[in-house]
């Protein structure tokens, strides 16, 4: 499957995400979308995309949202909760939409949904610690 136009990736930023991904992003004026295409290496023993891969992709997406694409700060996850509501398979374009609920001086609260087409695969919420790059 060819990757849809308009998506970008930034290899070399996070070694773990590079190893598991690549993960992509698309910025539009009113929202951001994150995506990857499932491959055999992303699957578990029953040939479905592994939950750990989906959780890593969610973490990538929520951190991009919380930091405005790491423009001025970094972050680390403090808490993460998810619900698997369906499954994804090899060849699926897996997308994520996130919502920044609130930012305080030290934390950001983010929710999101991972989906294939119109079907939800996973929902999640997270709290991340905002890190000033000057520390």
Low-confidence stretches: none
C-alpha Rg, in Å?
A: 14 Å
CATH architecture: Roll
Walk across the major sheet and give the strand order.
1-2-4-5-6-3
The number of domains: 1
State the CATH topology: Thiol Ester Dehydrase, Chain A
Cα separation of the termini: 42 Å
- CATH superfamily descriptor: Hotdog Thioesterase
Shape: globular
Helix/strand-derived category reads alpha+beta
Can you give a write-up of this model?
- The protein is 16% helix and 44% strand.
- The model has no long low-confidence stretch (mean pLDDT 91).
- The chain has one domain: Hotdog Thioesterase (Thiol Ester Dehydrase, Chain A), CATH 3.10.129.
- The termini are far apart.
- It has two helices and six strands, in the order H-E-E-H-E-E-E-E.
- By secondary structure, the protein is of the alpha+beta class.
- A hairpin with a 2-residue loop joins strand 5 (107-116) and strand 6 (119-132).
- The chain has a six-stranded antiparallel sheet, covered by helices on one side.
- The longest helix has 16 residues, at 51-66.
List keywords for this structure.
single chain, 135 residues, alpha+beta, Thiol Ester Dehydrase, Chain A, six-stranded antiparallel sheet, 2 helices, 6 strands, 44% strand
How is the secondary structure organized here?
Blueprint: H1 15-20, E1 24-28, E2 31-37, H2 51-66, E3 73-84, E4 93-103, E5 107-116, E6 119-132
């Amino acid at each position: 499957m060819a990757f849809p136009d308009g998506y970008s990736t930034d290899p070399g930023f996070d070694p773990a995400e590079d190893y598991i991904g690549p993960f992509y992003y698309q910025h539009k004026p009113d929202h951001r979308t994150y995506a990857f295409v499932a491959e055999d290496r992303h699957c578990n023993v029953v040939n479905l995309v592994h939950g750990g891969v989906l959780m890593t992709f969610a973490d990538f997406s929520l951190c991009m949202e919380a930091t405005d694409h790491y423009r001025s700060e970094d972050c680390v996850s403090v808490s993460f909760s998810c619900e698997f509501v369906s499954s994804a398979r090899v060849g699926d374009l897996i997308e994520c939409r996130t919502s920044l609920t609130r930012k305080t001086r030290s934390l950001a609260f983010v929710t999101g949904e991972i989906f294939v087409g119109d079907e939800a695969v996973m929902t999640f919420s997270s709290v991340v610690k905002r890190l000033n790059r000057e520390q």
